[in-house]
Fold this sequence. Notes:
This protein has helices spanning 3-19, 24-39, 44-56, 63-75, 79-91, 99-113, 116-133, 138-149, 159-168, 172-200, 214-220, 225-239, 245-263, 268-302, 304-315, 319-333, 339-356, 361-364. By secondary structure, the protein is an all-alpha fold. It has two domains: 3-56 and 287-357, no CATH class; 76-266, no CATH class.
Amino acid sequence: MSDLTVTALLIAALFLILASGVWIGLTLSGVAWIGMQLFSARPAGDAMALTIWGSASSWTLTALPLFIWMGEILFRTRLSQDMFKGLAPWMQWLPGRLLHVNVIGCAIFAAVSGSSAATCATIGKMSLPELARRGYPHEMSIGSLAGAGTLGLLIPPSIIMIVYGVTADVSIAELFIAGIIPGILLALLFSGYILLWAWRNPGLVPPRDPALPLAAKLRESRSLIPVVLLIAAVLGSIYSGVATATEAAAIGVVGALILSGVQGSLSWATFRESLLGGTRLYCMIALILAGAAFLTLSMGYIGLPRHLAEWIGSLGLTRLELIVALTIFYAILGCFLDGISMVVLTMGVIMPTVQAAGIDPLWFG
Length: 365
């Protein structure tokens, strides 16, 4: 049977199982099982057990539940309100004014939560009512929040970076370092768009608040100190070499608990809710990662990644053309799957192709 036929059958099985409502992790395992049973001599049961255990017991992956828990703890604090209070006085002179709080607030919260969903939810519950009360256009309020919320994908400690690092065997600490400048550039682009929009639509921007003296601005900014210290503790420990990503995640959890306790928002109920919320989210991701690891092994035995890499190599694409093609591919795939699912679903096939083209996996991530 040709590679094209095998690929078509497995893709059909994948979408058929997904369409039936089966969880993504179980779907990946099911497709891997089908592939190994039909197109490989290796016993599927033994391979599945060893692969799933190996992926679940990875020490590197330990950072993931800790960063998720840290984000869940901070989601239940007054951090978002404090950030708005501290940032708002400094945004009044910019065209677009408080709309920039969405962007900067998301960038700051992304640096302590690692999750785009948590970033959007936390900043949104604080900024949207306040922006609506002050008369900012609803479309720009929602749009700036939705766009800036994606900064959680780039700005460390990004959860999806940890997933990519585990699946592609790339250093998570190096990924974190590599994500800082792109994350800042993306935040500047969002703010730049707000500036341009405000310049073209001055009548839609509410008037600025009464000017505050510098001393008052600095006094309001004191509420930013805890989150800045938490960011410095987590990221600084990684970049200075004092701690690994996993150890920094533990530092972040302790710091988040201290911050929550100081604010008075830490109770047994919130502690339990954050722990259960983090556990549920991590179990979902871990199941997907386990299925993806088994699927990667199955594809390796079938030989599809190698054949795909050889086929793409025969096309004579330049690195730029390959990157453009993959960008379009992921843009289309993103209409149907979330980021983590896309990474774990495609890395087993895409990564050999990327490496064969001479593209650095760290840069590609």
